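G.,

No rush on this.
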Amino acid sequence: MSKRQNHREEVFVKILDAAEVEFGLKGYNGASLQHIAERAGLPKPNIIYYFQSKANLYKQVLDQTLTGWNDLFDRATVEDDPAEVLDSFIRVKLKNSFEKPVASRLFAMEVVSGASHIGDYLKEDLRPWFVSRVELLEAWMAAGKMRQTDAASLIFMIWATTQHYADFEAQVLALSGKDGYDEDDLMRIGDAISGIVLAGCGLTKA
């Protein structure tokens, strides 16, 4: 990769990171390209050059969030061990919630408000992915690799449980008497969620 390509990539990531924080704090309507540019330490025209509009930048931020959440599960096939895949999926999702809570809350805020800015994305991009993952789970069930259950509800349950630690971070920390999450929490909570989900699916991790 050339120095110019490296620079473009660095600027692209810097803008996305700044936009994630700005949108997370102010929502879509409250955020502005000017404030995102200031947070990124870049001129506003750079934002427009890379993303064209606030709406497109917002969708890119949400898409990046979903890709980070689901990447591991996205690559799983019927030949894989469902216990290994689901355990890893849960732990990666939980780690993202610990490390990038703003991104999770931003997505939750968008969906709760009616998904007016990403409705087409949910139907045209996320739904085909979701259907394919339901089909994978059902294939594992048909092959006797895991207990019969409602595959769609299982995915929703994993999303909801892991994202709870980001979306309701203030409540979790207050009730736990903690100021923040640490590595021990990541391991302990990951073990608990994974153990409950795998047991419900008739699975055990080797």
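When you get to it, here's the other one too:
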Amino acid sequence: MTKVLIVDDDALVRAGLTMMLDGADGISVVAEATDGADVPGTLDAHPVDVVLMDIRMPKVNGIVATQQVRARANPPEVIVLTTFDTDDNVLKALRAGASGFLLKDAPPSRIVEAVLRVAAGDPILSPHITRRLMDQVVTSADAYTTARTALSALSPREHEVAVAIGQGKTNAEIGAELFVSVATVKAHITRILTKLSLGNRTQIALLTHDAGLS
């Protein structure tokens, strides 16, 4: 059973998400929080697999709360809840460690699928959305240098995998391109995350973007 925490200051949003997810096979909403400030204590009392995190909240916003969640030992995955077209902070949340985002008006089936996929370690950013988000940010010279330096620590094959992730390719697509198994691709990704001290493949994609490679 995938356990979920919903964090949103809108009671109607929380109620709707809870009703939707609790009715899905394999998902259980075990807790709710009304602000990012309440998240640490809620997670202490109710360990979960996935956090659905609103960005705009009155005390502690979703970006700061996501950083705090991902800094925990064995942290849950975080999915950002956003209106997207009016919210400029999605990319910051992804850099903070979120595994993806959902539009608040997404179809119920999409939200259920996203929760289950993220719980299984599969980010939910499509290549199109990844590109749209990245195009909102102009990479600074410092970020470019930092990213290039970080990526230089990778082996040639790990570098290829990182660039492919930045291009939005799935594990299967990467394996086919490099003539290796999906299991081998996953092993490379694990080593990349460890070497670069990153939390998930979305952060790999952002790093390759900063380096001008995707």
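Residues 80 and 101 are 4 Å apart (CA to CA). The first strand starts at residue 2 and ends at 7.

Enjoy the weekend,
O.
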